Amino acid sequence: MSVLVAGLVVFLGLHSIGVIAPTWRAQRVAHMGVGRWKLVFSVLSLVGLAIIVWGYGMARTQSIVLWTAPPAMRHVTALLSIIAFILVVASHAPRNHFKAALGHPMTAGVGLWAFAHLLVNGTLHDVVLFGAFLAWALATYVTRRRRDRAAGTTYPAGTAKGDAIAIVAGTVAGVVFALFLHGPLIGVRPFG
Length: 192
Fold this sequence. Notes:
It is built from 9 helices and no strands. It has helices at 2-14, 17-20, 22-32, 34-60, 73-90, 97-102, 105-120, 124-151, 160-186. The chain has 2 domains: 1-62; 63-192, no CATH class. Helix 1 packs antiparallel against helix 4 (34-60), helix 1 (2-14) runs parallel beside helix 8 and helix 5 packs antiparallel against helix 7.
């Protein structure tokens, strides 16, 4: 479990720098240059992600069951996960109502994904993994929205075209991931 926690600290810690220490981050970017900053950030993020995957795999061998979800809950998780994929795509899609309303749909999507997975995964290592991502997403989202309000930041109004792109691309990505990638990459086939 300690390897999983270490990976979460590295990965989520890196992704919290802009929220916790935005001035320090800006100084580092100015000093290193945007390209070099992104390279270092990406490499360290991949290292953190690899440690999470390794630690999660190790923790799964010693599962401590905290609760067992009813089988029907997996359908709720699937639906919420598709919505999470749509939100993540909306963060990059052209003008859409998701971004206009939420401001930070990727962070909201990560939080929804984590919450959805907590509904069906009741082992200690799952609670640590998804709980950490949920806590990070909630704290980050609240902080970013507070900063948006303080700065008077508004997001462009959404369009039907932007919504359609986010919904279609997010749904396709979510279905493809669930049916073809979740099993090989995660070791769990959500639909048997």
